Each structure stands twice: as structure tokens, then as C-alpha cells.
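User:
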Amino acid sequence: MLKLGKSIFLIFFLLFFCSVCVFAAEEITITTYYPSPYGSYKQLSVAESGAQTAQDYGLWLTNTATSSTASINKYGMYISSTGIWNGVSANNYGLYIATPTGGTNNYGLIVAGGNVGIGTTGPGAALHVAGSDNTPTLLIQPKVMVNGNISRIRFADPDNGTTPMDIQFRDDGSADLAIMGGSVGIGTTSPQGALDVVSTSGAFIVPRMTTAQRNALTAVNGMIIYNTSTNQFNFRENGAWVLK
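Assistant: Predicted structure:
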């Protein structure tokens, strides 16, 4: 009878334990621990090493939870770093990705799909950067510049020029400046020439300078300036300045 009672108790205990594992949603806190005198540390370290012959992941996080509840968010990973950390030269990083090395190709970050928002929780494009007034929204700056170097922003055409690319700057919803293929439009997205300025509220103003400043230019046929010494337009034509 004693053995039977122990068996029944063990069966009920296992059933209860399994039901908790299956049905209960619990939050798990992981604290690493080192024997005395080091104590415990609130840090989780994941290290992968050794030779690998298949695709390898240092850390894989998957969230397959489902819901039909309105106005709730789902996060594959949520990172928060708060609290006072204001010592001299002390920095607080929400996420830091060290430089990857050792691969044929090394990539710091790949976002395979979806929009990325910086300063916004509702990005409306593949990369949406939202900044505050009077502060740079996007700053692109080389680490080192020496004489002769060029700082560049390159827009690559994926179809090798089959269709024209465009760059547009908008303020009130319409294009204030547009570069369409090899043409530049100011106030228009359909420039009819290399430079097409369209406006009903402003004028096109050519460079203004004195005669001495004009003569210091490396003159090229086709130049136009307004001469403030003579209050005349000057045109460079057939190797000479023509006055109007």
C-alpha cells in the first residue's frame, strides 16, 4: 500500500508539473553566478566557438506569438537601457554592434525586410529618419579628410539607366528641388533642360561681382554675371566679355 500511495502521489505531481509547463505563461529571469568570492552578475553572456561546417548563430530569437487583440504591439526583441549613468566620459548605449571581422564579407547589420525608423515609431519608407527642429536629421561625415579627398553620397541605379532616377527635396508637398536623371529642376519635377527653374514668386539671380572680381575668374564661354561696377550684365562670348 505504501508503494502504491507513493506511485499515485508521483503520478499526480508529474501531471500537475506538466500542466504548469504547458499552460502557464511565466517570465524567466536569468542571472549568471560565479562561486564565492565573485558572487552573482546580472549579465547573460552567449559565446560560440570551435570549427563549424554549417550555418552558425551566436544567438537566435524567435517570437511566433499570435493575437487578435487591438492596439497591442509585438516585439521580436526589445532593448532598454535607462538609469543614471553620468560619470565623466561615461556613455550609455542602447545597442552596440562591434566591427565584424574574419569573413569573406563582413556586415555590421542586415535588415532583410520591413521599414527602419530612427526617431519615429511609424517609418513610412525603407529608412525614415525624423529629427528635431534646428538639429541635423542626417549627418554624413567621413572619419578622416585630407587634401584632395571628396566626401560623396552615391545613389546607384539598379537597372543601369533603363529608367531615370530622381532625387527630390520637398517642403510643402511639392518638389522644391528635383534632380531627374541628368537634369536639375527647381520648382518642377519635369525639367526641360540641364537646369530648369520654375517659379511665380521668385526670380533667377545670377552671380554679382565687380569688374576686378570678374577678371580674376578662369573665363569660359557661356558665363553670365551681373557687373556691380558698371551695373550691367556681362556675357562671355567668343573669348571676350560682352556687355549689355
